[in-house]
# Entry
Amino acid sequence: MRVVIAEDAVLLREGLAGLLERFGHTVVASVGDAPGLLAAVAEHWPEAVVTDVRMPPGFTDEGLRAALQLRGRHPELAVLVLSQYVEQTYAAELLDSGDGAGVGYLLKDRIGDVREFVDALDRVAAGGTVVDPEVVRQLLRRRRDPLDRLTPREQEVLGLIAEGRTNASIAKELFVTEAAVAKHIANIFAKLDLPPAADGHRRVLAVLAYLRQG
Amino acid sequence: MEALTRRPLPFLGSAWPWRCAAYLMASVVPGAVIGLVAAVAQVLPEPLVYVAGPGVLVLSLFPLARFERLRLRLVDGVPLPEVPDRRRREAGLAVMTLLAMWWIDLIMVAFTVAGPALLILTPVVQPEVAPTVGVMASVAGVLLLPVAAYTVTAWGGARGAMARAILAPQGSELSEVLRSRARLVDAFEMERRRIERDLHDGAQQRLVALSMTLGMARLDLPEDSEAGRLLGLAHGEAKQALAELRELIRGVHSPILTDRGLAAAVRDVAGRSPVPVSVDVEVGRLPAPVEVTAYYVISEALANLAKHSRATEGVVIGRIQRGILVVEVRDDGVGGADPAKGTGLTGLADRLAVVEGRLSLSSPIGGPTLLRVEIPCA
# Structure
């Protein structure tokens, strides 16, 4: 996969490039600010972009704004946004851009879990939606009434769906079979009055939309 | 005025009665102005009087105001603070002095001082009265002198207080204190922002890089080897340190508040509350001191809600009403929040005072608790 990285801290930028190349991806450009990111995408036509939120010149949310701009211009471009802190507003803006497919929003900490991080990027590039567990935790906390009807295990599964995990990945995380996961999911969707959905980003979006209503 | 409360002998020995008398006697100057106008009016022909009379009065206003300021020092040692509408206030004082105060001052002095003086001088000015009566009158006059001292000092003090009230309204010193406190809070806020920035650019980035390097190294080492196990521990520690650092930074300064304003920052705080809190804040971007203060007050209120209220849910509502940011934080908890008990609520009120905000709290035992904050946004 051809990737453009935007990150102003040199140490991290180099590290990210090394990491992605190690997993067989091609980093076609690494830049240090938002205008550089826009230019690199126009020049290289990558399949995916990994960008920091806070970058020069203003050190506020330039990376996120650039990401939203790119989503508007190239709906097929996968965008994974990394942030030093969790902000629901950022997640919401990303999910609302395009149809919410092919975006990811993760805490920078997650880079440390190398395999999962690369896996998340792959899912985003495949048109999936990835949301940081921390954001999901905040969303789950906001709505108590209908969620109280879920068993603790079902709540756990709901959170993992919202993060954008597949059935297989949820099964692995919880040490259960995929069939058990499928059963939990069916229960959850029934209890929350959500239309049943297959494994895929539509299901993720349905759950996120549900959680964000509150 | 405080001089009056001293014991009689030190008071009578002090300079205050004399200073007050001098202060009041100085009213001959505005009196002379009026006299001058009257004299001019006598001399000038009809139509000119109507122009020259008021003209002289108006021209004399500001010199008179200066004179009032000067003579106020006789009875009031505290310097007058600067006020924005100084000229208007000075003109007002001068008009009041010209129209009424000067003759009241002089009459007060005349009665209180001239009365005893005439009594004392009875044997001289009224030689026809019997000598015993004359002496008694003199004694009575001497006895009345201290009373005169009190009267003159009281009126002088009251008169000075009036002049001060007109020249510098109450609270103008207070607003200067508030302004300097606001500057201090701004300076603190700048410093916090700098610390947050330094931590973000420094330690935080390095820890992410460290965690990434450790993660990469783990790929190359079998999990079950001794080195792999230690590496796993180190990786866990690095991630823990990152999480703790992030919490610390959030406490120092909220980057979301700076980036996206109060509504987003409040949603963020509410999202991390262990008690579900719904947020209905519909305000745009506000002046930075207002946003920062409101943010800290709401954060503290939500922290209290989670710690003490035993509530099952909370609500934060924020609106702008006629230029005032009004925020309400409610919960369905047990109530009994008492500003006197903890420093938290008092601290909130102190923070609010700097931006001239107000805090009201209703928290009966048994609940519910409603905290209301108003901050002017101008």
In short: Residues 180-252 of chain B form one domain. The first helix of chain B runs from residue 8 to 13. The mean pLDDT of chain B is 84.
